[in-house]
Design a protein that fits this description.
Chain lengths: 545, 445
Amino acid sequence: MERRTFLKVSAAAGGTLLVPVFGNAIAAEELVNPMAIQFKKALADAALNAATKAGASYCDVRIGRYLNQFITTRDTNVENIVNTESSGVGVRVLANGAYGFVATNVMTADAVAEAARQAVAIARANARLQSEPVRLAPVKGVGEVAWATPFTKDWRTVPVKDKAEMLIAANKAALATGATFMTSMLFQVNQQKYFASTDGSYIDQDIHRLWSPFTATAVDKASGKFRTRDGLSSPAGMGYEFFDAQPRHKVRAAGGVTTLYHGAYDIVEDAKAAGRQAREKLTAKSVEPGKYDLVLSPEHLFLTIHESVGHATELDRVLGYEANYAGTSFATLDKWQSKKFKYGSDIVNFVADRTTPGSLGAVGYDDEGVPGKRWDIIKDGVLVNYQATRDQAHIIGEHQSHGCSFADSWSSVQFQRMPNVSLQAGRKKLTPDELVKDVKKGIYILGRGSYSIDQQRYNFQFGGQLFYEIKDGKITQQLGDVAYQANTQEFWNACTAMCDERDWRMGGSFFDGKGQPSQISAVSHGSSTTRFNGINVINTARKIA
Amino acid sequence: MKLLDQDSAKRITDKVMALTKADECRVTLSGSRKGNVRYARNSVSTAGLVEDTQLTVAVAYGKRQGTAQVNEFDDKSLEKAVRRAEETARLAPENPEFMPAIAKQAFRPSATFNPNASEFTPEYRAEVAFQSIDAARKKGLVAAGFFSDSTGFECIANSNGVFGYQELASLNFTVTTRTEDGRGSGWVNRAAYDPKQFDARAASEIAIEKALRSVEAKALEPGRYTVVLEPSASSDLLNFMFTAFDARQADEGRSFLAKKGGGNRLGERLFDEKVNVWADPWDANAPVLPWEQQSMLARQKTDLIRNGQVASLDYDRYWAQKTGKPASADHGNIIMAGGSKSTEQLIAETRKGILVTRTWYIRMVDPQSVLLTGLTRDGTFYIENGQIKHPIKNFRFNESPVVMLNNIDELGKPMLIGDAGSRFRMMIPAMRVRDFNFTSLSDAV
């Protein structure tokens, strides 16, 4: 599920921010200087000692400094630049077999020690309600270590003027080719996270992510009709070099209908295409509902993967921990235990990982101090594993956590979040153009559109940004009003072909929501262009009063 | 940091404004203490307490403005925030849509705080979880729930003399109870400002009853049905629609309220004449702050839909000035008129229909028609001759709230909706609606 928490936070932070701002909004020299490591260690030790003294059997401390910059533009104006800086400490303990958590923005030894004692009191208050004590899979303390997102250009040191000019250039490009209105945004995130636990780890991480979505809107005032085309970029776990796209980063979509991007992004070029395509959408042929073979581009398929595989294989959902909110899962333990549950066709292989460079989910360690790793989720179409945290590993007979515990802030408690979950590329050589050649009656779908799936991850409906009719192996024209509905298991078993690794690339979700209180998380999903046979397509055109 | 009282908050906002040499300064200061307990599988899974206070400073030189936000409050940090904002402002170009700080406003206090909020303690939260889990266990069910409470304050100030300070406190509760075999599920949602108006056990019993009644669900063919929507079930759909009540979007031709040929549909009857919706910060059941944080404008009681007609659209300060209309503050709540009948009475007067307890994962499919898709969840039942005949499998729907509000048969008693991420606090009635469009079946329970 995608949430708008970041936007909400940013809007609240903005307050009176409907202004254009150029230049360095936060003094760069202050931003790039993290808190002194010895200060963080001393704070962490204060909490660990206080918790232990108060009777905690386990304690972890997360000291966070979170820097966000959020730029919004509209047409030729910079509307809003929000810079937020938030620092604080979250203390989680186990006492009497139950969890307690307290967070404070007061960063003194006394305050974090008091937070630790309060956390123990909360754990004790709830211990009487435990049906069984929490069991943590062992983690070997790693001592004092550090990890950072690899990047060559730090977004914090790039002048705001340059960033705003890039967005305005994109807006102008879309307006010149057919858009009536254009909005574009740039989200930039730096999480400076320090983790310490009674296991003996002191882990310092510096994580960077960014995303630049846009929406081009074409309006036909005479008919009262409007259509939009969103950007085809993918958010990335990398530095500002993401915007230095070279020809090698550009991918020709099947039939040459548009340009796609891999490893870096040319927002101006994409916006130029978007203006034209939004205008074309005003007159696109409304789709005839029925069964179609769908050819799904990675920039679209990532979201279907996210919803129908990523969330469905979260062990906390399977066990019922999300039953009140995000839901449970059809991928129940008995299906996994049978070792023969056909989640998808034989060519469907999903891998979970925290190690893919450039991905949103790449980290050195999770928020329980577990190193990032890679493992199989679905192998040759069969469900073989889940995503687990330290307190879940024993349930699936494992002795180590998968490293899937994360919090979105120092003030949020860590819990199970998905790693990058990616569909492996096809083993046979196949390009998107060759894939389309085999399709008699189909639709080629690109870009993320509307999305919805039920609480057990069966029934879903997805839209997209661009829909092209495929007739007898040829892409003919844009279609409109397209959405497809399917059942997860039927859909993945209808997977009949996929392009090879030359076409494999990642899409991503910047604001994946889950949990109560709701938290966001960022995660990537890779795939190559993939074909699904005989999927139900509906027409979404409606008339209102 | 301790929650700030009005005098302490004022001292900080005054200090911040004294630190800047810019033409104008706007400050927002907010703090909260948020407690929660989360449970699942009849055990507490997490429980926590989070305290945080944030300061946002925006300064302007002419039409150049800069902003910074921090959550540290020593003198050095306050100065850091001001200097960062000033540095940004000096580098900023003029914004053609810049609106200067507003003049002093009068804010009539609203009842967003209740002194009983001091009852929110770890023991109180644990007791909420116990009452809910115990009730479920006694019926052989499995409970997963979430209780959260929040106490805090909001403060705004600007260099033209605007100053507003108000305390807030509220609670939210939801619980899903499921049968052990996973064939039945029920849910309930409660919100309140005063802990004395909340009973965890009584609320949980509603979810328990739904869970027990929802096993043996039968499949019904997708199609158009009369539905009885509980207040929580329709609030998400309405939330999507009301975020589009924006004059600029409509005037520019990019919302369902845009008029063919240009202009907007203000004054047109787009809904059944039984539909009346307004915003009112002083409503006793759903009070919200009497100002909008972004513009610092004082909120007013405002009709949105009157007898089915679009009664007002939101004009931000820039668009109001450009079009010669009065500016309006964003609404904090949405209140829809209903009747006095309970959901049970609406069911009793339904010949054939479907009771929808909860909707889920609603997303916009087409903003042109506000077509939304989503699903039913945690208790969907077939009604025949005024009685719940049997549970049914969940549906996916593709429906527009504009169409829905044209097909209203009858409205029930309004109820305060819990905070599910909505931009608005909502008081929404149960409603019986004709021809609601279910497009496919879901096997999910």
